[in-house]
Every structure is written in C-alpha cells, then in structure tokens.
Amino acid sequence: MARISPACNLVTMLSIDGGGIRGIIPGTTLAFLESKFQEHDGENARIADYFDLIAGTSTGGLVTTMLTAPNENNRPLFTAKDINNFYLENSPLIFPQTAKSMVWGPIRSFFGAIAGPKYNGKFLRSKVQELLGETRLHQTLTNVLIPAFDIKLLQPTMFTTHEAKINVLKNPLLSDICISTSAAPTYLPAHYFQIKDDNGNSRDFDLIDGGVAANNPSQLALSHISMELKMKNPKFYPIKPMDCSKYLVISLGTGIAQHEEKFNATLAAKWGMVQWLYNQGSPPLIDSFMQASSDVVDINMSILFQSLNSEKNYLRIQDDTLTGDAASVDIATTDNLLNLVKIGNELLKKPVTKMNLETGKHEELTGEGTNEEALSRFAKILCNERRKRQGKSLLS
C-alpha cells in the first residue's frame, strides 16, 4: 500500500524543518493531514502513501524516518498522530531538565558553550537504535531525503533512498542517519560511522546536524526530484524537470521567534565568541544561520512557484510568533511541551501566510483560508493523484 505505482500526474513532496522539540508543531499538522487522508481512503491510510519524496532535517529527519521506516508488517513504524506522543514521552530524556540543571542551567550552559555539548546524546542514540534496529535507508516505504553536514570534509551529505538503492556505500542504517542529522552543534555530539561493501571498499562519515546545510530541506527536495526527472526515472514519467505546475509541495516549519526581537546590532556589536555561542539561554550564532537557511529557502521556493504561475502548488505552514521557552529547541519541561501542542493546534486555525520580503514577517494570503482548510484541499488533491495511479475512480 505504501508504494504508489508509476504514471504520475503530479510529483508530490513533503518537507519538514529542523527545530528540536519544536518538531511537535509539524507533528500536529501531520496528524491533521493524515486524518484527512483517512477520511477519504480509510483508517489504514498513512502519510507515506501519498508523497513521492519526504525530506526532513534534524528533528524533521526524525519525523521523516518515523513516517517512512517499515514495521514488521511493512507499514510505517509510526502513525502521524503518534509523533507528538513520541516527543512528549522522550524529549525530557533526550534533553533532561532536572531541578539541579534548572538552577545551575545558565552557569552550566555558559561553560558548556566552551567545554562541550550541552547533552550527551546517549538516550537519543539508544532510542533510535532500539526503534530502527538494522533497518537501512533503501528500505523506506517512500523516497526520503535527509541532510547532514560532514564536519571533516566541510560539505553537506544528502542521504536519499534513490541513491541508497544503487550504491551500498550510500545506504547506511537509518539510526545512523537520525543520530547524525540531529547532532546540533553545542547541543548534541557529532556522530561518526563507517559503511563497507562486499568488495572491501569503505566510506567514513563525520557528521553533524543537517540544519548546518539546510534547515528547511524543501529546495533540496525539489532539486533532487528535478535530477531524477532529468535522469528519466520511470516512476515520474512523463513529467519534465522544473515543471512546477506538476509539482505539489507541502513545507512545514517548526516555528520561529521573529516577533520577539530578542537581540539587536547594538548588543551584538560587543559580542565575542562566547556571547555568540551563549546569550540569554540560547546560541545566537546557531539560531541565526539555521533560521536564515529556512527563510531563504522559503523565499526562493515562493518566488519560483509564483514566477511559473504555480503558487497554489506550494504550501508553507510556519508560525513566527513564538516567545520564551516555546522558541527554544531543548526546554523539554512538561509545560513547554504541552504548550507546543497547543501552538500546533492553533496554527491549524490561523490563515495561510506568505513571507513579506521586506519585513521577514508572515502575512495573510487573502482568499486562501486557514492552514486547516488549505491542508484539506491538498489532501483531496493527493488522494485524487493516488487513485489515478491506482486506476481507480476520482474523488468527487
């Protein structure tokens, strides 16, 4: 059920940003989207059944894996509605918030910015290894793209199902990919692993968080599909590269704090290395380049689809009003986690927005309704596309 047959009329893509515990926000959106699929196609419908490619960075990479890794019945390991339960249960263990750490947290974080990562990452590693076992990239139930960054080579590393199926040295364990793409600098340790083939060849990977390369991986997803089309991948015949009228992209952000205006140039002008790595409870340098990455991609994607008269084929859902603990990637207190669930539910009720290129803020798109309504429209299109490929009658 998870693999869609060829002869496609649309190439469908889902993209999920990085953002630590804020993965709860797109998790809420995905639960709603999957529920719409189930309304049309029954309770066994899953996100992986409807997208030709799912791309995810960092926490988005974890979500991508949960949605596409096979269980013992060759169906997705997690339903979309289970994603937030995973975060609520495991985030406090990945990012422990003990009473002692809450008291000494600012001091420890200050010295941690110099001495080493804030968290040891042991629980995250053991958890993903327990869940994924020996499952490898080529086994995902639909095609995925998960970026990481090779700190030794100083270049991005893209893990894709397409490449994993043809090259053993690009077919790592899914657990290694998850640990790597989520290894955020200053928060979690870098990850090393090696792949060997049957001929004695090997490849080393020295990886950190994919957000260093692409915190919003939607443009990478588009480029990857364009390359597959150029190479005449029969699954996508007869669509041509960069025919945006034949692309459908849903891009999910994890929330940002643009309205908070926490820092300014007067303050930053006096900062040295330590202040850039730790200031008011967060690392401004890391926050800045990861958010810049997400916004630049959103701007480019929006302009591309508009310029090719296909703006209704691209949906970006993002909340730019986070403040305080909600804007953090690691404050995994019960109150904050539940608040993120609330923010995710409220985001569904908010109007569809587009980024203002002058202010960087998201403004309502008149006539497009709420995010919930837009997802419902996209769900119907995706269900129609799936039924066409299966040779079934269309939805009314």
From TrEMBL:
Gene3D superfamilies: Cytosolic phospholipase A2 catalytic domain
Keyword Lipid metabolism: yes
Domain PNPLA: 14-222
Active-site positions on this chain: 58, 209
Pfam families per the UniProt record, alphabetical: Patatin
Keywords: Hydrolase, Lipid degradation, Lipid metabolism, Plant defense
Motif GXGXXG per UniProt: ranges: 18-23
EC id: 3.1.1.-
PROSITE patterns noted in UniProt: PNPLA (PS51635)
Principal EC category: hydrolase
Short sequence motif GXSXG: positions: 56-60
UniProt motif DGA/G: location: 209-211
Example GO biological process: defense response
GO MF annotation terms: monoacylglycerol lipase activity; phospholipase activity
Notes on the domains: The nitrogen atoms of the two glycine residues in the GGXR motif define the oxyanion hole, and stabilize the oxyanion that forms during the nucleophilic attack by the catalytic serine during substrate cleavage.
Family: Belongs to the patatin family.
PANTHER family xref list: PATATIN (PTHR32176:SF120), XYLOSE ISOMERASE (PTHR32176)
Function: Lipolytic acyl hydrolase (LAH).
Protein name (Swiss-Prot/TrEMBL): Patatin
Organism annotation: Aquilegia coerulea (Rocky mountain columbine)
